[in-house]
Amino acid sequence: MSTSIDIRALARLARLSISDAEVTKLEGEIPAILSFVETLQKVTDGIVTVEKQELRTVMRDDELTHERGTYTERILAEAPAREGDKVAVKKVLSKGE
Amino acid sequence: MSNQKKIQSPIISHGIDITHLTIAGARRALDSNEYTALDLTEAYLAQIAEHNLILNAYLEVWEDSARAEARAADEMIARGKQKALTGIPLAIKDNILIQGRVASSASKILQKYRAVYNATVIETLKAQGVVFLGRTNMDEFAMGSSTENSAYGVTKNPIDTTRVPGGSSGGSAAAVAGSLALAALGSDTGGSIRQPASHCGLVGLKPTYGAVSRYGLMPMGSSLDQIGPLTRTAEDAEILFAAIAGHDPHDSTSLPSYAIEKKGKKIGVPRSFLSEGIDPDVLSCFNDTLQKLARSGYDIIDIDMPHLPYALSVYYVICPAEVSTNLARYDGIRYGYSAQADTLLEGYMKTRGEGFGPEVRRRILIGTFVLSSGYADAYYRKARSVRALIRKDFSSAFETVDAIALPTAPNPAFKIGEKASDPLAMYLEDIFSVTANLAGVPGISVPMGTVARDGVQLPVGFQLLSGWREEGVLLSMAEAVEKLSQ
Q1: What is the ipTM of this complex?
Q2: What is the DSSP letter of A46?
């Protein structure tokens, strides 16, 4: 099932730039790891689908847990770029899109 | 073995014999004014100054604040207001947040990141009057079994500095084993507390999933991660665990608080799971320990857990899947390293490509694959289904036994570099430890003896897994194992 993997396509999906040398290395390693985990396909008895497994939702009241502005300066001090009390972000859409 | 200062025994530092010092022993000495918390802190700072350069257990040492915390602890003691951990010098893994301190997860992407709030465990320890010595080295974002995946160099095993301390909490383990801290906090996603404890001759406890708050722990595999103690003794593990356990509304997976009940005499051994992939010396040490336990009144029972052989495969699907989603937050926009780029997309790609190390990149890509459309059913959903069967194996086993015994790791500490180029060989180190994280049950590693390698006696760990919220069973049995090996 996992013979050839398009490492470059995966890297694009994961927003990761990787070098050509690393692509070559991963083209060997990742299929080896996937073929190791392939053993899971042998388990067929007693399978319960994910959707039927027990899950519990934890709720809390929709209210403020701290005073407004408590963390603003500390958080912005960590941001690579800021504009006033906001984190500055690069333009999301460029011309022609 | 040329340019290294060997850690000699006994270790007398600043007038205090810290060779075998425990939290319990230090508590007695501090409370009877044998020495002060400041003396004790100086003893560890001196030991760090002498040995950290070679061991690389700490990424940063907080001498000034440690001394201030020690003085504050001495005041608490003088006023009779001390708690279990007042004045106890601890090391903290680099993925646990302390407000105002750098917390890097041993990654380049967070090299300069300063935590904006305290993890709940840190708040708790601060209220106890703990002395924080520094932050310890680890595999980047806790991915690894040797601490070789740190962006800041490998940590060396104090017992044999040509070998790894295990991982990912290798810095924490090396700090305690080398007497560079009295105890430490680590985190365990697939064995990252227990395996380094095994390799460094310590006790390591991974609590029940939800027992200890993870608020302020950098997430890796959110359905697997737990914070826990690395200590010299089971008694110390209990003291530290009791301090940090308890419900926290900030962590939606947090369990209601519960008591530690020491009990349990029946130990199950999943024999068929031990038939291959394990070092013969480790196996014989394990069998000896079981025999000794049987002679001292424990029932050793062979049990069948048919899905355990699939645990490692399940883990290496679910863990990378959760890694790939959790680490999506490192985008170079809100915090951490940010690469210069012309467009938003190029900024993401370069920041993450330059900021993450090779193992993190590998796991993100595997996770992206197993979650991708067309493969998620065959890999991720299948793994979650088999995980449910593993969990069922555990609940069935606990109908007849109080705990399950396994070696902590299949091998003693290996040489630095030995497995670094073979990711699969490294993953196989986790074969016996990932089971507890997948089932969410607690696990402990306690020293069961040593095996000789190149003329050095290397410690190996005996692992016990108990039912959910039954840490008391583990601690009680771990104390029995300690007595047997004395």
Answers
A1: 0.92
A2: T
